[in-house]
Amino acid sequence: MSPDSTASTSPAVDPLASRLPVTVITGFLGSGKTTLLRRLLRHPGMDRAAVIINEFGEAGIDHELIAASSEQMTLLGNGCLCCTLRTDLQETLRDLFARRRAGEVIDFDRVFVETTGLADPVPVLHTLRTDGLLGAQYRLDGVVTVVDAVNGMDQLDAMPEAAKQAAVADRLVVSKTDLADRETVDRLQQRLAALNPFALCVTAIDGDLDPGLLENIAPRAVTARGHELNRWLDPAASETSFFGRNARSAANLSVSAHDAAIHSFCLWFDKAFSWETLNAALAALSQLRGPDLLRVKGIVHVEGERGPVVVQGAQHLFHPPVVLQSAPDAEPRSRILFIVRNIARESIEKLFAAVEALGVTR
């Protein structure tokens, strides 16, 4: 749902539950994406996944994959389906779904998309949000970005792609922590927290990670997972939460000079929005600065709604808003976190101030 369609009706709590979740796994070259995915697929409950990859490293997901890499689709040893990306993502996803419906492949219940190390994950979000046919079958569950503890700081310094991959993530996984000293890992985690304050950041050695941390990370999950609710709603839940006690300072942590183009900040609003004015502000922001609007994530109060509303988007695209009807908000003010590229905080403050005539005040 685009921002300009949010005003007509109150959003459903879970409008996408029946669609197959798609998780995008990204990260710079050599960060450990394939290792993470290979370990993830070994867990019970992951034997009905479809995996789409568009690069082959020295280590594939499984020996069977390497041996049959000339085929477009391969059934892995654990029952998962692997598909090499030979055409565009839309065609691959449509083909997968058609074969699933015809009984030609396993009845997969989720999809993992592993991008190349230099990929921008935002076009994948765009594909899933703008293709009407795909939208009837799939839903974006979130973006997982793997960051190498040994080389991550240098990659963030030298490679804009690495910084953007971290900035758009819903989950950050710091890999190879056993190969880096504690001080280096701590510095990297602090930098990632400054670059993307709202992403849950975890560590993994040799890709070993609880798969539950990478499931249901879209806005719909906020209503179902207790720890997610705490991170979203409780202003005192955690000092690392982007709405935590130190939210104002945490959202403005100093980042490396190399990250200066990408920065984050949180805006607070004392007065509840109407659906019309919230829509107007988000639509104007998306239209005017969409390409540099890397992530927007917020809890806002809307007139007439019983609970706070989750709003989040990337560039020109916004998820359907989710009303948390069963979760009263301890913080009476609305707050929206922005991760942007080359956009001054003041310009967004002025944009929201411009809709005060419609009844919105900060």
Descriptive overview:
The chain has twelve helices and 14 strands. With 362 residues, the protein is of the alpha/beta class. It folds into two domains: 3-14 and 223-358, Hypothetical Protein Yjia, Chain: A,domain 2 (2-Layer Sandwich), CATH 3.30.1220.10; 20-217, P-loop containing nucleotide triphosphate hydrolases (Rossmann fold, 3-Layer(aba) Sandwich), CATH 3.40.50. Strand 3 and strand 4 (81-84) form a beta hairpin. The radius of gyration is 20 Å and the shape is globular. Residues 1-15, 56-71 and 219-258 have low confidence and may be disordered.
Give the helix/strand layout:
Layout (H helix, E strand, L loop, with lengths): L19 E8 L5 H8 L8 E5 L9 H5 L5 E3 L5 E4 L4 H13 L8 E5 L7 H9 L1 H4 L2 E11 L3 H7 L1 H8 L3 E5 L6 H14 L4 E5 L21 H8 L13 H4 L11 E8 L5 H15 L3 E8 L8 E6 L2 E2 L3 E2 L10 E8 L3 H10 L8
Parallel strand pairs: 1-5, 1-6, 2-4, 2-5, 6-7, 7-8
Antiparallel strand pairs: 3-4, 9-14, 10-11, 10-14, 11-12, 11-13
Helix pairs in contact: 6-7
